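Record format v2
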Amino acid sequence: MKTAPFADPKAMAGILTELQNEAKTLDRRVTLMEVCGTHTHSVARAGLRRMMPEMVRLISGPGCPVCVTPVDYLDRALALAALPNITVCTFGDLMRVPSSTLSLEQARAEGATVEVVYSPLDALAMARDDSEKKVIFLAVGFETTVPTIAGALDEAEREAIPNFMLLPGNKTMPQVMRVLVDDPDLDVDGFLLPGHVSVITGWKLFEFLEAFKVAGVVAGFMPTDVAQGVLALVRLAKEGRTEIGNVYGRVVTADGNQHARDLVDRYFEPSDEIWRGFGMVPGSGLGLRSEWAHRDASKIEVEVPPPAEPVGCRCGDVLRGVIDPPECPLFDSGCDPDTPVGACMVSSEGTCSAWYRHERWASEAGS
Amino acid sequence: MQRLVPPRAVGVGGRIVKVPQRVLLAHGGGGRLTRRLVEELFVPALHNPHLATLTDAAVLPELPPGRPAMTTDAFVVDPPIFAGGDLGCLSICGTVNDVAMSGAKPLWLTWALILEEGAEGELIETCVKGAARAAEEAGISVVAGDTKVVPRGKGDGIFAVTAGLGVVPPGRDLGDAHIESGDAILVSGPIGDHGATILAHRHDLDAPGLKSDCAPLNHLTEAVLESGAAVRVMHDPTRGGVVTVCHEVAERGATQIVLDESAIPVRREVAGVCDLLGMDPLALACEGRVLIWVASADAERVLGVMHSHPRGENAAIIGHTQEAVPGTPPVVMKTQVGGVRPLDLLSGLDLPRIC
């Protein structure tokens, strides 16, 4: 494969050498957390974790929107899919997440009308094509994804397509990050800030971290981007500076995309939302404003079983960054990508899944 | 409803065949319509003296010296016509290649079709032409066939089931068990073309220039084997792609496989489709590529042979084998940026009906 500029081994070697040099004069181990599933994925794919210096520890936080979706959201989605004349549309990686009973994939095999889509606009097209069917899109994802969902709603409103609804489940980052820095079990020196969330929000959104004495650097997703981000964070840690940096300047600005945020604002408002592993995080969700109640599938009466988390699953602790996946008793002994017990193992962005595929050997071999 | 018209005459490789407008149940009934379909379409298209006898079994000449090698395969690809190929060409190439992988020279194939009532004549025509072209390029004969028709809704246009027979010349013995530590791994061209083509089609992605790599490989593999290089084993990475073959070989050959990411040829269009859809080219099917394990001293020679063959122009050395160490991953990849990561088998890759 032709080497892309951002995956250039020479450039990478250069950044890593600088990182090694900086790390040599660190007086303590620095813990950096990424909070973006795509970062989890790119770190694993490039084999970056093992290229980090000894004194730099890279951990994963609640960056996978699928993994932080609580069990009762899935239960509700399944209950809706069982109703007549309803089609539930979802992003692919929600399909295999276990609920209190079945996954959406298993339910589909048993006859439930569940469709995988790559975009909410595909779901809208289904609603447009068949007015007899009520199409419910499972709105999961962070700030990056919400504008397209708002866009689909906007189109539905403008074209007067009544049979398109959402089951709101989107979440925003800052509130859960506050919980993380407040957590006594966790000692994070800096955050690798999510690159594409920041495209929408702007990096200034993360300035609140300064009050908590935690640094943050926005980084992109190519291997050299991630390494640059880590280097910048290590430098900030050494100098005792807790400001927000941006090494993804080619797409991220201070103020982000106001137009996208205005569109989201028209349809959504902050809500209290449950995050798997964290419980209720106030103001961290995005619910539909009351004037769009006709688009809100959470208003549909369905019977939902009491939520049942799988026994022994420590997804919550993994998501909070308190343990690494191998410390969960079920990791690779009952829970694996073929037979996932918890959400962290299902999504390709999930910490456990990334670890299983790319790093479990290192920990087993003790290297 | 339109009136049914008589079969159309079309040319296939210099011969005239008759293509019905639409498949009817009667075409599978065994009576006159079946006979006409066979005699006017399949026999002339796939022309060879054995098929033309139309007896219950093709009685063939004595096998050349060596050990017979046989394979069977079923083809249900959806869509049956795609950029770069069709179910017909795929079914011939897939079968020929399976036989060729064992080091055998493919000789004779069987071709049984299950058609759906109502299938369009154009579909059958395209598939038959594809099969004829592939058979011609491979230099094999389809010596026996069968046609069944299932009622509308009980099939999906066209399915094919094949068997292939070849002979491994004396003195030739390929197998995973022959692999040694330090062997080189070569691929005959860019990976993932077929899988990406089908995916792009299913997701309505416009990718000009992207097409299936569907092709018979027996002449290429024969050239490689005839060169005298110490080839250990060959495999074609179909369903499951390169990563699946590597895992199978690592297990059966009791070896560790190390791939070099920057050496693996991937077309831009394939990388683009994979990026968009979250797939890995290493896990996508190829239908016209061979992976070859060879003694490292002979790697450059094999590369040279492949480069001078039209089906191996973009061949590359993509990795090597080394001693398997218990507790370490069977397949790893040196990443472009100098890292190393294990290559795990993708669990339940959701790609049904890719071939």
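The longest strand of chain A covers residues 279-288.
The radius of gyration of chain A is 21 Å.
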